[in-house]
Amino acid sequence: MPAAPAPKETAIGVPASPSTHAAAVLATLCWLLSAGVYIAAKAVATEMPPWALCFWRVFMAGLILLPITRRHWPAMIGLIRQRWFSLLIIGGLGLSITQGLIYMGLNYTTAINAGLIIALMPVMTMILARFLLNEPVGAWQFFGSMIAFIGMAIIVTRGDLSALLRLDLNVGELFVVGAAIAFALYTVLLRKAKYELPGLPLLVVLLGAGVAAAIPFYAWELIHDDRTALNAKGLLALIYTAGPGGALMYYLFNLSVQALGASRAGVFLYLQTVFVAVLAYFFLGERLVSYHLVGAFFIFVGVLLVMLLKPSVQAYNRNG
User: Fold this and answer.
1) What is the pLDDT confidence band of residue 36, given thresholds at 50, 70 and 90?
2) For residue 39, what pLDDT band results from cuts at 50, 70 and 90?
3) Model pTM?
4) Listed ranges 110-119, 227-236, 244-253; the one with the highest mean pLDDT
5) Got the DSSP string for the chain?
């Protein structure tokens, strides 16, 4: 998934912004490629350990994108020298911990379940932004977040909400929930940090931080996990997740943000959930069942309430 929306600056080492229609096509392709990462990770879950996939995907994607940002290298180096610790924390959360938890979750749950749960990220971001950035949350947004979390609970419990009381939960879905929380925290902290660097160069710096953060987990895996990442199936998955599903996806996301703006481009995120379900059906044999549909309905209604019904500034000033 993309690291973050690009700031308003357009100097990201790419050609001029595409037209609105072209940007919409690019954004759609971006999330199709991102959905493919879930399919690839699930397909090789038994052959490739999650942190090996995380480490090499982030490392190779950063390596591919690095030459594109060449004219920003002095500014990138300066930022690393000045704020390396916050970059490590934020980049580690968004580009290492988030991905590692998703890949761990895919060892135990379906790609469809993971794709639906990840759709909660905007709701979780809103909640964390309220506490960490003091951003306003209106009554409808609060109501929407509750509806979305009911949808998540339906998916995690496979339609049996009494499983929450019995603590009879699938560890895979819990890992994915943790990933959604980690990415929401990353998004909020990135807003708060306000790094003075355009979108694509900042992404490359954060990818480097993600590589550094993944090293301890990857090293532990090398010692304790007897699965190999060197078979043909694992290498094909890695090539896809680092290339089309990594560097190219990030690049397309930055282009779409440049043309559409962060808010409009972010709406395309929800195509990922649809693409994951379709691809999982054709390539993994996964099927939608009733609790998927019910949970998805609650999640998308809740997310629409959160995103479309913004609290008024006047009401926030009176209450806050």
Assistant:
1) very high
2) very high
3) 0.83
4) 244-253
5) -------S---SSS-SPPPHHHHHHHHHHHHHHHHHHHHHHHHTTTTS-HHHHHHHHHHHHHHHHGGGGGGGHHHHHHHHHHHHHHHHHHHHIIIIIHHHHHHHHTTTS-HHHHHHHHTTHHHHHHHHHHHHS-----HHHHHHHHHHHHHHHHHHTTT-TTHHHHT---HHHHHHHHHHHHHHHHHHHHHHH--SS-HHHHHHHHHHHHHHHHHHHHHHHHHH----S-SHHHHHHHHHHHIIIIIIHHHHHHHHHHHH-HHHHHHTHHHHHHHHHHHIIIII-----HHHHHHHHHHHHHHHHHHHSPPPHHHHHHH-
